[in-house]
Amino acid sequence: MKTILKMMAMTAMMAAPLANAQAQDQKFNYSDERFADLQMLRYEVKGFDQLTLRQKTFIYYLQEAAQLGRDILWDQNGKYNLRIRKILETIYTEYQGDKTSADFQAFEVYLKRVWFSNGIHHHYGCEKFEPGFSRAWFVQTAKTLLTRHADLTFLVAQLDEIAEVMFNPNILQKRVNLAEGQDLVLTSASNYYDGVTQAEAEDFYNAMKDPSDPHPVMFGMNSRLVKRDGKVQELRWTTDGLYGEALTKIVAKLEQARPFAEDKDQQAVIDKLVEFYRTGDLHTFDDYTILWAGNTAPLIDFVNGFTECYGDPLGLKCSWESIVNFKDLEATKRTETLSKNAQWFEDHSPVDPRFKKDKVKGISAKVITAAMLGGDLYPSTAIGINLPNSDWVRKEHGSKSVTIGNLTEAYNQAAKGSGFGKEFVISQEVRDMVDKYGDLTDDLHTDLHECLGHGSGRLLDGVDSDSLKAYGSTIEEARADLFGLYYVADAKLVELGLVPDAEAYKAQYYTYMQNGLLTQLVRIQPGNNIEEAHMRNRALIAHWCYEQGRAENVVELVKRDGKTYVQINDYEKLRTLFGRLLAEIQRVKSEGDYAAAQALVENYGVKVDPVLHREVLDRYEKLNLAPYKGFINPVYTAVRDAQGNIIDVTVSYTEGYAAQMLRYSREFATLPL
Ligand code: ZN
């Protein structure tokens, strides 16, 4: 029930480690500036120009609504964040001193990191940033500049307290603290609780739960829990409650968008969301998500609201986020084609007929184009969405599972100039092949994995779905991956027009084996084993095939100038090995063979060769790649006639990172300091 597949930027790059510095698409600039551990990227909103005026207008209002909640997220991430942002931006825009000084240079990097994290803690690691400039310089500079603004002088009186928050490493250390044995609520710097202990918060919400309710609401998702006059109580986030100024503006924008919605059902979705923002009623929220999950006909869709619970150590409170998007019809055709042929794939798979489904239904995963990212999806973002969160809503009313095609493409394109392929792919010939077919076959592999792989096969009667226990998720991911690997090379894909020729699959085979045997190790700390299920599954598949194909030299690890490379000598035999392992993994799953699952995972998926690991880490480090990536949004401009009616909406990609952040702070500042 993960809401959104939050992905470290690097993960996406590792999924398709591509070759060759020449990006195919020269006209669009996917990479922008780099600072600290961050690389800024841009995404292209392909297809926007082909939308109707009505659709463009709908998106125009929704993308404004997507930014109007920005301050909510900043405040959720920490109670000093909005004031700190105001002070930092005042210094940044009005500083008259030496901008080449060490203090100012470090200050600029600090501000860019704070912008990126929507607060003073790292967006991923949650630790507080260490300012690289002096506290004395900061306080003096801020005092001088703030004093010039009548409306900001109140901040001067708070400067010492704020500087303490920024500079003292011993207070508000982590945004979210999950360390066992501590009071997670008191020790987390996020702003979801005030004056309450973890035990008080847990008692408060446990008292609300009714275990016999088959349709429980998500208690606590839209409020701050505080203690006032000795009493624990909720401050709800509603148009006339906490965050009311921001929510009122979001509601007004949603109502401007409403007439341009694509159908009546979508208008009902907007109405329900507005009702929820006004009342804060959690049953209304469930009703809204049910309407939203069922509204699948429109091209355009959006998320706007309290969604992610990662920022709350107790996992109850939801951070605000938004994405505006529209269906990528071309890519969605791909997943629909696979879904339509689901039975053919099931019937022809290399697994024992006893483990096959008589009737299989493919999942028609939708591919979308992001048009705007906001709140907790900006600048760091997800590449897939799976909502709503509520278990019973998902079970009884379904959910939407989408992948965001243009963000994945941006990651892939940006990775092409990174030198990664040049370092790890064995030859120019293979690099060219990966360059030509890598993106396409990687997308297809993901589609096969998601639309068909997970849904294929069946358990034998009487087998408990939990019998593989801790090995269950690795085996399940391996099953879906192998289904994809086996079929990405099938002539059926050529026949269905999903690949241009019978050679394309080799790009996926090469990158998959390279990743599983070598390059995914860059994400493991020296001395550690592989823990994460997807990584274990890739290691399992790659090492098993490597070993089983050894006698016939199917896949080799070759050394050149002290560097290890993957070489595939026989792609067809490799496919046979994938098929054999798929049959075995399906048997293990269908029979619930715990001992076999344990042996496969422990022997092939967990251990790391320390010498090879060191080599891969050293080679990767030399590439000096930013571990985290995020996106600068496009800018939409409404073209209006003399009466003020929108007659067109244009999109541009030239706004810089700092300029965008400053503009958002100007145009979309919704909360008081
Ligand atoms: Zn999966």
Quickly list its features:
673 residues; alpha+beta; six-stranded mixed beta sheet; three-stranded mixed beta sheet; 27 helices; 16 strands; disordered N terminus; binds zinc ion
Q: TL;DR?
A:
With 673 residues, the protein is an alpha+beta fold.
Element layout with pairings:
Elements: E1 4-6, H1 9-15, E2 31-35, E3 38-42, H2 53-67, H3 70-77, H4 81-94, H5 102-117, H6 135-146, H7 153-157, H8 159-167, H9 184-187, E4 193-194, H10 198-206, E5 223-228, E6 231-236, H11 244-257, H12 264-279, H13 282-294, E7 300-308, E8 319-327, H14 329-340, H15 342-348, E9 366-375, E10 382-387, H16 391-397, E11 400-404, H17 405-416, H18 420-424, H19 428-453, H20 472-488, H21 491-495, H22 505-517, H23 533-548, E12 555-560, E13 563-568, H24 571-591, H25 594-606, H26 610-623, E14 628-632, E15 635-640, E16 646-652, H27 657-667
Parallel strand pairs: 3-14, 4-5, 9-11
Antiparallel strand pairs: 1-10, 2-3, 5-6, 7-8, 8-9, 10-11, 12-13, 15-16
Helix pairs in contact: 2-11, 4-5, 4-6, 6-8, 11-12, 12-13, 14-19, 19-20, 19-22, 20-23, 20-24, 22-23, 23-24, 23-25
Bound molecules: zinc ion.
Residues 449, 454, 477, 480 line the site of zinc ion.
What does this structure look like?
The chain has 673 residues and is an alpha+beta fold. It is built from 27 helices and 16 strands. Strand 5 and strand 6 (231-236) form a beta hairpin. Helix 6 runs antiparallel to helix 8 and helix 23 crosses helix 25 (594-606). Bound molecules: zinc ion. The site of zinc ion has 4 residues, from helix 20. Residues 449, 454, 477, 480 line the site of zinc ion.
